[in-house]
Amino acid sequence: MIDFTFTQEQEDFRKQVADFTASKIAPKVKEMEQNKTADKEVVEAIKQAKLTGVFIPKEYGGLGLGYVARLIALEEIAKVSPGVSMMLQIFGLGIEPILKSGNDDQKQRYLPGLSSGEKLATVAVTETTGGSDPTGIETTYTKEGNYYILNGRKIMLTNAPVANTFVVLAKDPNNPKAFSTFIIEDNFEGFKRGKDWNEIGLHGCSVGEILLQNCKVPQENLLGEEGKGMRVAMSAIGEVGRGGMVGVGLGIISTLLEQSVNFSKKRILYGKPISNLQTIQNKLAQMKLDLEISRLLGYRAASMQDKGQRCDLEFAMAKYYTTEAAQKCAKMAVDIHGGYGVVEESIVTRFLRDSFVLGPSAGTSDIMMVIIARAAIG
Ligand SMILES: Cc1cc2nc3c(=O)[nH]c(=O)nc-3n(C[C@H](O)[C@H](O)[C@H](O)COP(=O)(O)OP(=O)(O)OC[C@H]3O[C@@H](n4cnc5c(N)ncnc54)[C@H](O)[C@@H]3O)c2cc1C
């Protein structure tokens, strides 16, 4: 049996997050657009609502609601602020490797703090020499007594300016095939934050760098087996990372459609609303279709994840479709608004900028196509 409906608990949760977003995030959107960074009060509100721990099991202090609920939260928040949704999505991406690959001690030490928001996480893979190709990274680890010593620079990291817990991928300088993943706290010796990055959109979410200069990492902070860390990082990015981008994209498409429908019903030309024009209707129909297809792909993948099934291919397809559709829908929405669509303070212009920042995050569309083609070819 295939059931395409949300449970009552999921519907209630959606309403709860929508109310939270209206009261705690919507009033801060203008300020976040101006400051372009994460807002302290918004971060605090997210912690209070325990949204960082949506999918962390209750035994570790999380809400224990699973990955469909996580997608619901990200979609609802992104309807108002794709930037805040992106921030929350990457907090989750930093949690996943500890949840999935951490040992009991690591889970006990980190998950309760990550559930309450006392600890805020991110994943640090990207470097100047390694984005789509993570094997190109140059950050190294070596073992010295009870510590690993890490050296390198990680760039383009969502939440780097606000997070205190970093899941970092590094390589063994003596073995080009060996990569390991570590949990690094911002108070470890040799850890430094680098410069902030200014993206064209997704404001309300801060992006930055970290510098590891003989950073001393206790051996008990190695995540998974030494030399097998590529899998730890990539499986989290493949499911939770790409799933999160779907959530941000869904919120964007949903609001673009709503704004476009409202505008086209109110805008009178030739004595009639422009929603009567076939060209406008074609765009609205395409946006509605894109929203439905993206939702089906995204929630199917998340429900497979809740059942413990492998779903990296399903998330790659959902990520590709949703983030490409968000960009196309943003252009159509701007077009529908005529000259009103290109003034800086309009929502559709803001969402157009946001939609373009979605593309590379958690893997570009080209990389999604490589993954999908590989599955098709077998
Ligand atoms: C807003 C934002 C947030 C981010 N947050 C994080 C984060 O929290 N942590 C983190 O580690 N990283 C983060 N990233 C980095 C992100 O993962 C990389 O941008 C992404 O993996 C692409 O890498 P790149 O930017 O180096 O582009 P490149 O890898 O240099 O790609 C350049 C071009 O080549 C194409 N290309 C590359 N390989 C192939 C191929 N095999 N076939 C066809 N085309 C190909 C790409 O599609 C792209 O068009 C973030 C990026 C952005 C924009």
Structure description:
It contains eleven helices and ten strands. The strands form three sheets. It has a four-stranded mixed β-sheet, covered by helices on one side. A four-stranded antiparallel β-sheet has the order 2-3-7-6, with helices on one face. It folds into three domains: 8-116, Orthogonal Bundle (Butyryl-Coa Dehydrogenase, subunit A, domain 1); 124-227, Beta Barrel (Butyryl-CoA Dehydrogenase, subunit A, domain 2), CATH 2.40.110; 231-377, Up-down Bundle (Butyryl-CoA Dehydrogenase, subunit A, domain 3), CATH 1.20.140.10. The longest helix is centred in the middle third of the chain and has 38 residues, at 229-266. The protein has 378 residues and is α+β, with helices and mostly antiparallel strands. It is globular and about 80 Å long. The protein has helices at residues 8-25, 29-35, 40-48, 66-80, 82-101, 104-116, 229-266, 278-306, 312-336, 347-358, 365-377; strands spanning 121-124, 140-144, 147-158, 165-172, 175-185, 191-197, 207-218, 222-223, 268-269, 272-273. This is Acyl-CoA dehydrogenase. Belongs to the acyl-CoA dehydrogenase family. Its cofactor is FAD. Residues 227-376 form the Acyl-CoA dehydrogenase/oxidase C-terminal domain. Residues 7-118 form the Acyl-CoA dehydrogenase/oxidase N-terminal domain.
